[in-house]
Structure formats: C-alpha cells, structure tokens
C-alpha cells in the first residue's frame, strides 16, 4: 500500500512538472510572437517572467537582454548581464558584451575599461581579442576593432594572425591599401588562399580607387618578394584595369618562372580573348605556341589565334600573322584571306575533330557574313556536317544555313533547316525554341499570317523561353494589322525580307512606300523605326534622324516613343559623336517615361557620357 502511494505521488509530480514545462513553452512561443510583431514591451514582460522562474536558462537570458536593448533599457541590461557574469566569471564573451551595453548607454570610458580588462587577461589567447573586436565592429567602432586586432597581433607575436579579420574591417573603412596588405599576408602564409584573396579584392576592384590602391600595394609587394601567387594577382588586377599589354608582360614573366611550356600564356590568351582584346590575345597565343609546339593546347591556341585575326580583320586592325616557319605578313586585307588560310590549315591538320569542324564553320561564316558568298558558304557548311555530324555544331550549322536560304529567297529550304534544328538531338531546349521562332518568321515572310500565329502560340505561352518576348511582339504585330491593313502587312513582310537579303536600299524604299500609302496603319511607327535602323546601317544618319523625328511628331499616340528617344540617343552617341545631344535624348526618357524599360540603361549612359562614377 505504501508503495502504491509512492508511485501515485511520483506520477502526480511528473504530471505537474510536465504541465509546467508545457506552460513555459507556450509562454515562450507567445513572447516570440510579440517580439516578431515589434511589441517589445509585452515580449519583455513575458521573457522576464520566464527568466525569473528559471534563471539558469540561457535562452531566456538572451531573450530578456535582447528586449532590454530594444527598449533602450541599457542600465537594466547591464545589471542583468553583470549578475550573470558574477555567476560565470570565465565567460569572456559575456563580459565583452557588457562593454557593448556600456557603449550603447553612452558610457564609452566604462566600455573601454571593460574591454581593456579582458585584453589584459587574454594571455595571448586569440579568442579574447576576437570577442572584443567583434563587439566593437558590431557597434561600427571599426577603428577600435582594428586597434584590438593589432594589439593582439603584437602581444601574440604572430605577424599573420587576424589578417582576414583586419582585411575585412579595412574594406568597411574603405582603406583599400591596408586591406590589400592584410590579404597579401594571408596569401604569403598560405598559397592555397589565392582564390579567397582574389574574391576579396574583386569586391573592391570595380571601384577606381579600390583597384588603384590594390594594384599599387601589389606592385610594392613584388619589389620586396616576387612570388608566383602575388604575380598572378598583379596580372589579374592589370586586366581588371584594362591594362592588357602590361598584363601580358607579367604573364611572360610567370611563364619563365613556372616553365609550363606555354600553358600559362595560353590560359592568359583565352581570358583576354573573352575580354575582346584581340591584339593582346593574338600575341599571347603566338608566344604560347612557340614555347609549347607539342602541347595538348596547340590546336585550341591555333584556333584562338585565327579567331583573333578574324576579329582584327573585321575591325580593320593589323597584327603580324604567324606562318608555318616565321612571323611575317600583316593581316590588313578586307578579304579576310589571312584568317581563312589559318582556319583552313587547322581544318586540314585536324580533320574529323571539334576543332577542325569549328574552323570550317568560321570559314563558312566569313564567306557568308563578310564576303556575302552565299553559295560558297553553303558548300563549306555542308563540309562541316561531314566532318562533325554530331555535337553542338549541328544546330548552329542548321541555323546559319537557314539564314542563308532566307537571304537567297529560298524560304521553303530555310523552313526545312529550321524544322531539322527544332528536332535535332544536339540542340538544347533554347535552340529548339529559337528554331520554332525562325519557322514562324519564314511563314511571316511568305505572308502566311495564320500559320505564323499558329507557330507562335506555344512560344507565347511559355514565358520562360528566351524567344517568348520576340514571339509576343511578332504575334501582337501580326494580329494588330492583318485584318484591317493586310496589304500593308504584306508589304512590310516583303520589305523586311529584302533587308534580310542585304538589299537595304530597296528595303528602305519599300518601307517609305508603306508610309505614303498607309500613313494611319498601326504598323506605321514600326515602319519608321525600321527605316531609321537601315539608314544607320547605310550610314545615312540625317535620314535616320528624319525618320525618328517623323515618328515623334506625327504619331503622338505611338507606344514606341520611349524607344525612339533611346535610339536617337544611341545615334548621337555612337555614330554622330555628339555627346550633349545624346545626353539630351536620354534625359527625355527619364523625364517623360519614368516607367520605361529603357530608364535604367538611359541613366547609366548619361552618367558615362558625363564622366560620373557609376
């Protein structure tokens, strides 16, 4: 019987304790809800009751102190923390936070005293310095946090300790020179930290003052210690500052040091090529090939060099062309024969390979785009599919041959190529969607407007596709005009087809005729934009301006007016070279069309034209 009463008592006590625990948890959740709603007074009262019932609970202590800070009851928070510190005298993190509370209460001298007490007993323990510096940094007392870390470095006797923390603080203080010095300490201690250090410098390298300071400090370091990681940083910083020729000099020094048989120079050339700095890239490719004539990268380097010659030819620039035995001739010929010869040699030496297929593709592209030799280009593209019948080149060849057939007015043949592309196993979803859009364009050129809309429909329903916006625009354009102005739409289709065939003057005349015959058609503003576009390509800038001005003056209700002002700004900026008129055009967009899609880019261009920092 006695045992029975004992068991009943234990069960009753357990039930009471569990009931109390559930009640405390419910109260804590309610207090959290009040805190999330910024009702700090009610949250404070509930946290206070919970802590009073369980003073050993760290969660309740932190919550109560947090509310006292939110309510600016700093003295109460100090008293609360001080009582807890007396019970836990070795909790230096809690002691450091007491210093923070004194600082928040405006008692700076007392805060400094508390923090200095901690540092005095640190006994070279890094955690003590970090605890104090973190509290100071959280208060944005960056100078004090830096002083704390420097004191720790001196007392510990380790020149590399706290380098990461100091670099981070200096970046907040915009002291980019000392920031770079600290990260160089980190790098000199451990070369494996290169990627991290580069990422930290990249965070400030987009600011002119940050890039300049970092570059200067790295150069100073190299005067004392010429290490490979620091030289790599210098090369990268020079490229960030668009000093590519100087960066190449550093790459050459690195190549001599590491003796990678041209690999270092090849990697540099690839990076600079992506930056569209083709003269420097060509030089780097050349030097890489001379140092490693038997390395695996040779085919890619030769292809990269040929691509540089192609791009330089396009820009009318010169570069020494590397022949089989020596470096001699200049690539200045508008025929692009130098680039074509280089690609042909690669294709011959590496047949049935990706590099060979790509080289043939470039020859075909040059014949098509630069020489307008359409039949010759088609023959080359047929060869590409012979040597590279599989892989990502297949949809590219199909797409380009489709364009060529459009240029030859062979619309059925073009449609066949785009259809093949749309089902090609080597085309990803984006390329297949693109092919579908091009099929719709072919139907548009054939004036089969119902078929055009039918093909466009699934594209306009998938808004995630890259072509969905173009599909929506074409769908709207056709729908708007095909019933009321079908003849104007057909004439527009024919004019655009002429432009695709390179007959820009004929296209302009056709567009002009539309304006004369159908001045009230909904597509009239689109016609004027096309006329301006093709006038610019023909370098007839006054005619382009006249078309833009006609749109602005005679089509008051046009939804293309913001685009028109943007195009006028581009014309003044890039072709006529009238900075002030370009700025004036862009400013109209900011003033009259604040919700335009062109606002942000217009604002950026205004700042660049004025020379403002972006």
Name the descriptors.
single chain; 614 residues; mainly alpha; Serine Threonine Protein Phosphatase 5, Tetratricopeptide repeat; two-stranded antiparallel ribbon; 32 helices; 2 strands; 76% helix; extended; disordered N terminus
Can you put this structure into words, describing what you see?
- The protein has a two-stranded antiparallel ribbon with strand order 1-2.
- It has a domain at 501-610: Serine Threonine Protein Phosphatase 5, Tetratricopeptide repeat (Alpha Horseshoe).
- The termini are far apart.
- With 614 residues, it is mostly helical.
- Residues 2-18 and 321-334 have low confidence and may be disordered.
- It is built from 32 helices and two strands.
- Helix content is 76%, strand content 1%.
- A hairpin with a 4-residue loop joins strand 1 (320-322) and strand 2 (327-330).
Share of helix among residues? Answer: over 70%
User: Major beta sheet, specifics?
Assistant: 2 strands, antiparallel
Helices, by number, come to 32
Compute the CA-based radius of gyration: 35 Å
Shape, per Cα inertia axes: extended
With strands numbered from the N-terminus, the spatial order across the biggest sheet is: 1-2
CATH superfamily of the domain at 501-610: Tetratricopeptide repeat domain
User: Average pLDDT, to the nearest integer?
Assistant: 91
